Each structure stands twice: as structure tokens, then as C-alpha cells.
Amino acid sequence: MGAAVSLPDLSHPTKPETVFDRDVEWDALVAFSCDTRAGAGLGFVSGRLRQGKTYLLKALTAAVGGFYFGAQPATEGESLRRLRDELTLHTGTSPPNHWRSWEDAVDALLALGDGRPVLIVVDEFSDLVRQSPALPSIIHRAYHRLRESGRDNRTRLLLSGSALPVMHRLFCTASPLHELADLELTIRPLDFRQAARFWGIADPRLALLVHAVVGGTLAYRRYAGDHAPGGTDDFDAWVCTTVLNPRTPLFLEAHHLLQEETDHWDRALCHSVLAAIASGCSTQGEISECLGTPLTEASRCLALLQANALLHSGPDAFRPNLVRLHIAEPLLAFEHAAIWPHRSALEQQEAIEVWRRARPVFDAAVARPHFAQVCREWVMNFADPAVFGARPETASHGSLPNPARHADLDAEVVVRGEADHCSEALLSVGVARWDEVMDLHHLEHLRHLLALLAARGEDVTRTRPACYSAVGFTPGLRSAEADGDVLLIGLDQLYRGQQSPTTQGRR
Question: 181-186 and 311-315: which strand pairing?
Fold first, then answer.
């Protein structure tokens, strides 16, 4: 007899090699899907388009032998017919009765889990709810009927969707479905380190340049023809042959993304708002003034973009009443800062000529603020808490009025956290420079900021000055680091490990 064939352990399936990273998400989904406890389970998975959510859920369904249904924008009747046909194909038998409504369909789906755990995935659930607004209530009632009946049902139903405002509304704490939830998972873009590995880029400067254009969206590598630049010298040519090439999907992706995420809203205003933010406007008032639109109109547009995770907002680190906004999707920032003014030229001129004019704007208005944002993400996600003397709670941009000048003093990386039970401890004040070798005058800038903060009553006795640079530091600043006067963080630390403090405090 031949050797016995070992079957995979479906109770704890291994993540397929074709699924990049997503280890935490996979483990959470497997734990939910393979939970053997009695009672039907309900989980929610949300995430913007193009993040690999559907690919992940299909791989999970195949690994555990579950049932996957991908909804589409369609009428209620068509969706019910498609679901019935696909369920018949999955089970090999037709449902016993013709489905007259979603009540019949939901009951048939849940019946798959009678007696054993069975995963059921309904992807793009928000498309179904648009045509059948009562569907969440129907599911809620079906779960309560199951519990009251005492049936041994172990269905594991995952409802997934890309329309974030709809998903958040359906499953917020005020929703009846929220009380049934066993899992709530958000599939986010890859972080800057994951993105570098995904693109196969070892050079941290090149990795950051590419991330400043396409961010951590998995689909964009395929949109770029699975082609990454070979080095920093190849970056300009890569931009021209991918994002600025009308024959690639990336060329109009920023427009398609905004169209899909904002649905039928005023897209012209959304583009203008993003262009204003990309040009340096960071508050509602600045944006409204830049566009010449009423503040209420600009605010509604900003709220829509934030609800779709295209914008992030947060209070200024030194002036909490001042809320600052930044574009969350790098491709949208790239489009509206560097390419937006040259769109018509791209239809008439070679991309390399257009990019030659746009490149300085990219460096100043895209790469520079993107580097600062990556530094803040490093603080929150990768830095050893010992670097700042405590675990960071926030890392944000801060600005103070400068009494000696008519301009604000800025610090791109202000770290606050808990220290000695003080939740607002100022752990570090830092400046980030994408294209400057940093010197002692940057340290003097930080010391001046700290003096102003102390004069305003802020406790800065343990606040650590920090310089973040993408091109390096002078020997004088390195000497100050050795003396424990400043923290220096470069691209290698950002991409390749935790930063170890040279001292436990400032002198």
C-alpha cells in the first residue's frame, strides 16, 4: 500500500502563500470561522476597495470549506436568484422552496450550520442593503429565532463591505446587529514597511518614494504591471511608465477611486478640496477660504471624505482646538498636488516632459509631508517605548505662534503619552526633513520650541528633542546625539528595526 495522504487540518488552516502578510487578520478570521462553540456567530469585515479584502475572504472560505457569495449592485430579485443558484451549486441540492424574500434566503443560509461550524461569507453586503434596506433587521430576527428555538446551529456568518459609511452605520453600537457581533475586523492598507516588502524594495529611500505615490494598496502593484523601479535612478522613469501612462489602470485610478467612494456626491468639489489640502491647507477654514466656498459646504465634503477613510483629521499637538487634516490615500495626494495642474498637458506632451515640471512639486508637496507622516507612523507602530521613556499615545503635527515672526513654529512629530499616570505627558518634540542634512540649527529650533512651550506652562523637563531625516545628519548633530541631547532617526531606523535610545533622559 502507498503512504497515507495527510489531509490539511481544517480546524486551523494554514494561510495560503498567495496571501501576502495579513497574518493578524488571517488568525482572527480563522479563530472566528473555526470556533466550535454552540450558537450561530456573526462577524463584520470592512475595508476600502483594492486592499485585498475579497481575495483574503475567498482564500479563507476555500481553506475551511465554506460558502462565499459576492454581491453586486443589482435589484433584490436578481440578487436572490444569484444567491439561490450559487447555494445550489455549493450544496448540490436545490433549496426546498422558492425564495419569496430575504427571510427565506437568510433562513436557508443559516441552516447550513445546523450541527457543525460552517463559514458563510456575504461579500459587499452594503450593495445588498442599498436595494433591501430591511435586510439587517431580517438577519437580526433570524438570529433571535435560532436562539429561541434551541437548535444546535453553528453558522459563522461574515458580512463584508467596502462602502465604509454604510458598514459603519449598519454595525455601530446603535445598530441591532452590533449586539450579535463576535468579530469586527477592518482590512487596512499595508503599512510602509509591509509595502516595501510587497513591492520587493530593499532601498528605504526608494521604498518611501514609491509609497508616497501608491501607498499600501495591494492592487496597485498589479495596476503597475507588477513592475517596481530598480533603484532611485529608475524612479522617474517608473512614474512615467505607470502612473502617468494612459495605457495603465493607475493613470485614472485617483479619479475612479473618488468616484467609487463618494458615490453620487459633488465630485468636482471633492477634487477641489483634495487639491487645496495637497497645496498646504490643513484646516477647514483654510480650505474654505482657498476654494471660496461656504464653510458649511466645505465641511460636508470633508465629512464625506473622512467617512470613506480618504482623509484623516486630528488636533494640533500644541493647540488642541485646531483640527488638522491630511490626505490618507497617497495616490490622491500625489494626483492632486503634483499631477492635477498638468492633466491636460499629459494628453498632448510626453510624460517625461510633464514629470520634469511636476517633480519639484512632488518633492516639496508630496514626498516631504509623506516622510513626516511615515515618521509619525513609526513612532506609533515600530519605535521601542524606551526611545521616548514611555509608550506613545499620539504622534501628531504641532505648531506654535512665533512672537518674533509672523509665521508659526512647526514640529512635524510631537509625541505624547502616558508617564507617571499623566496621560498628556509631552514625550518628544521632533522635526522631519525629507531633503535636508540636519545640523545643530535644527536642534536649536527644537530648543526654542521647548522654551516657548515651557513659557505656556507645558512640562518639558523630560521631553526629548528628535530629528528625523531622510538624507542624514552632520557630525555636530551626531556628537549631540552621543551626549544624549537629541534623538536622531533616519531611514534605516524607520524601515529596519527599533530605535534604541542613547540615554534615558535629556541633559
Answer: unpaired
Task: Give all strands (DSSP E) within 169-218, no chain letters.
Answer: 181-186
pLDDT for 70 beyond 50: yes
Cell of residue 257, nine digits: 477611486
Q: How confident is the model over 200-218, as a mean pLDDT?
A: 97
How far apart CA 9 and CA 363 sit, in angstroms, is 50
Measured CA to CA, the distance from residue 355 to residue 469 in angstroms comes to 25
Boundaries of every domain in the chain: 23-186, 191-242, 250-348, 378-496
What is the tens place of the pLDDT at every residue in 252-283?
999 998 888 776 667 889 999 999 999 999 99
Torsion angle, alpha carbons of 357, 375, 469, 463, to 10: 140
59 φ/ψ angles, rounded to the nearest 5 degrees: -65, -40
Alpha-helical (H) ranges within 52-201 are 53-64, 76-91, 102-111, 125-131, 135-149, 164-171, 192-199
As given in the structure block, the three cell numbers for residue 133 are 434596506
Do residues 331 and 220 touch, judged by C-beta distance below 8 A?
yes
What nine digits make up the cell of 118? 460552517
Average pLDDT over residues 50-59: 96
Element (H, E) at 489: strand 487-489
Distances (CA, A) of 430 to 113, 139, 377, 446, 487: 54, 50, 13, 7, 9
CATH architecture of residue range(s) 23-186: 3-Layer(aba) Sandwich (3.40)
> What are the C-alpha distances in Å from 393 to residues 21, 213, 308, 384, 427?
26, 28, 24, 13, 10
What's the pTM value of the predicted model, to 2 decimals? 0.90
Distance (Å, rounded) from C-alpha 368 to C-alpha 408?
A: 18
Nearest to 77 by CA among 98, 94, 58: 98
Please report, in angstroms and rounded to a whole number, the separation of the first and last CA atoms in the chain. Answer: 76
Fold entry, domain 378-496: Trna Endonuclease; Chain: A, domain 1 (3.40.1350)
Give the DSSP H/E element, type plus range, for residue 296: helix 295-307
The class level of CATH for 250-348 reads mainly alpha
Quick check: 193 and 495 in contact, CB under 8 A? yes
- DSSP helix/strand/coil, 178: helix
Query: pLDDT for 425-455, tens place per residue?
Result: 999 999 999 999 999 999 999 999 999 999 9
Helices (H), 224-283: 235-241, 253-262, 267-278
pLDDT at 339: 94
CA 364 from chain centre, in angstroms, equals 23
